[in-house]
UniProtKB/TrEMBL annotation:
Limits of the MTTase N-terminal domain: 30-146
SMART domains, per the entry: Elp3
TRAM domain segment(s): 411-474
Reaction(s) the record says it catalyses: N(6)-dimethylallyladenosine(37) in tRNA + (sulfur carrier)-SH + AH2 + 2 S-adenosyl-L-methionine = 2-methylsulfanyl-N(6)-dimethylallyladenosine(37) in tRNA + (sulfur carrier)-H + 5'-deoxyadenosine + L-methionine + A + S-adenosyl-L-homocysteine + 2 H(+)
Protein name as catalogued: tRNA-2-methylthio-N(6)-dimethylallyladenosine synthase
Annotated source species: Mucilaginibacter conchicola
Length: 474
């Protein structure tokens, strides 16, 4: 998730961002510094962690030199994500050298992958905590205060943190992430996530709706429902009247959230091509406030490569799903993830990825070279045999094609009036607002009286740069 994007879930500029919240009522005089790497799920988890610790009286700080507890919420998806965290730990070592009472903890996927090995490899680390064990953090900190090292990397089949109302970190008060499920059962052969985040489980649908309602009441106007594979969301309420069992699938949940309020925009990520149903597509088409934007990772355009990736669909299936999107939601943005140089990928097979890109004309793509991850099916079964320079050439071709396609898609908006949710001032000037349209494209336009962040504006798009639409309120 390493490219600059119009989408906060993968925003490169947020990697390693320190998360700061308003101080709570309780105060134990200790300060927590927490920063996150990787996907939106990690950022969302850090909000849960901050919430658990705020309950115990911790305040947050944006300066780690000032902190009593430093937490780094880590990502294992590619090797360079892990390298980045290791380098960051070196900087924390310096701070701890000056303040030996400081507690340094590693959370998230790297903690889960390396477990207690982390304590041997990185001597300064005191606590190692996997993604399902955050409720145990206060105890683990106590243990470290008592002079021990502490580890909890137990994965759970039930934990969804459904009852924890996450504090919103660095929030603009307008967009929020809402986690609807955890874990992944898919076992794509390249992917470490099923090992680091455990089995798939869905969160209580009513707690999701209550959280979205609460966000709306507080002034939020956009929620992004998060899960590794949202289309396999499935939750059943067995305790309903007279023992009836109600099963809520993802289409049902989307509808329930859309009905919270027509002024609340609903986004979601990530969809798996094998699971996305026509029912979901019809639900998106039915509600104006469900954004016409689907993140549908293809990974490769070649059926043999897809098979050894264990994606469980082939090129034709994927194209048929894209056709269904175009048929049911004629004006829908589609983004994707692509991996270049997966084990044994030939030049011809790579060219099929390029031709898939021509077929779909993606609005946006996250593009990566294959990075072998220890313990995955691919690492066990196939040699990582595509030389790095070839992976890079293929990646460059994919990136170049995507640049054209993104530009083509953005240009389609020029001359149109888009409904934009104003998020705040543009990065460059406080004379301009910025916000996103329904397709998740960033739109910049002059501030106008009577319009404030958190409101919608109809913006006539007059031109576009490589990643931004530019216009004026009409
Ligand atoms: N190497 C490269 N990219 C990977 N991804 C997942 N695992 C790997 C890996 N080992 C990419 C996939 C996935 C996205 C979140 O990260 O494209 O969809
Ligand atoms: Fe990884 Fe595949 Fe699960 Fe996505 S769907 S998290 S790529 S195993």
């Amino acid at each position: 998730m390493e490219f600059l994007t119009p989408d906060k879930t993968h925003d490169e500029s947020r990697q390693g961002e320190a998360l700061v919240i308003e101080p709570g009522e309780k105060n134990n005089g200790r300060k927590l510094y927490i920063e996150s790497y990787g996907c939106a799920m990690n950022f969302s988890d850090s909000e849960i962690v901050a919430s658990i610790l705020a309950e115990k009286g911790f305040e947050t700080t944006g300066d780690f030199n000032n902190a009593d507890v430093i937490f780094i919420n880590t990502c294992s998806i590619r090797e360079n994500a892990e390298t980045r965290v290791r380098n960051r730990l070196k900087e924390f070592a310096y701070a701890k050298g000056k303040n030996p009472g400081m507690v340094v903890g590693v959370l998230g996927c790297m903690a889960e992958r390396l477990k207690s090995k982390f304590l041997e490899e990185e001597k300064l680390v005191d606590v190692v905590v996997g993604p399902d064990a955050y409720r145990d953090l206060p105890n683990l900190i106590d243990k470290v205060d008592g002079g021990q090292k502490a580890v909890n990397v137990l994965l759970s089949r039930e934990e969804t943190y459904a009852d924890i109302s996450p504090v919103r970190l660095n929030s603009n008060g307008i967009n929020a992430f809402v986690s609807i499920m955890r874990g992944c059962d898919n076992m794509c052969s390249f992917c470490v996530v099923p090992f680091t985040r455990g089995r798939e489980r869905s969160r209580d649908a009513y707690s999701v709706v209550a959280e979205c309602q609460d966000l709306f009441n507080k002034g939020y106007r956009e929620v992004t429902l998060l899960g590794q594979n949202v289309d396999s969301y499935k939750w059943s309420a067995t305790q309903l009247a007279e023992g009836a069992t109600e099963v809520v699938n993802f289409a049902n949940l989307l509808e329930m959230v859309a009905l919270v309020n027509p002024e609340l925009r609903v986004r979601f990520s990530t969809s798996h091509p094998k699971d996305i149903t026509d029912e979901v597509l019809h639900t998106i088409a039915k509600y104006d406030n469900i954004c016409n934007y689907i993140h549908l990772p293809v990974q490769s355009g070649n059926s043999r490569v897809l098979e050894i990736m264990n994606r469980t669909y082939d090129r034709e299936w994927y194209m048929e799903r894209v056709d269904a999107i175009r048929r049911i939601i004629p004006d829908c943005a589609i983004s994707t993830d692509i991996i270049t140089g997966f084990c044994t990928e030939t030049e011809d097979e790579h060219n099929e990825t390029l031709s898939m890109m021509d077929y779909v004309q993606y609005d946006y793509a996250y593009m990566f070279m294959y990075s072998e991850r220890p313990g995955t099916l691919a690492a066990k079964r196939y040699a990582d045999d595509i030389p790095e320079p070839i992976k890079a050439v293929r990646l460059n071709q994919v990136v170049a094609k995507q640049r054209e396609s993104s530009h083509y898609r953005l240009q389609q908006h020029v001359g149109r009036v888009d409904r934009v949710l104003i998020e705040g001032f543009s990065k460059k000037s406080d004379k301009d607002y910025c916000g996103r349209n329904d397709k998740n494209a960033m739109v910049v336009f002059p501030v106008q009286e009577g319009y404030k962040p958190g409101q919608y504006a109809n913006v006539l798009v007059e031109k576009c740069t490589s990643a931004t639409l530019i216009g004026r309120i009409v």
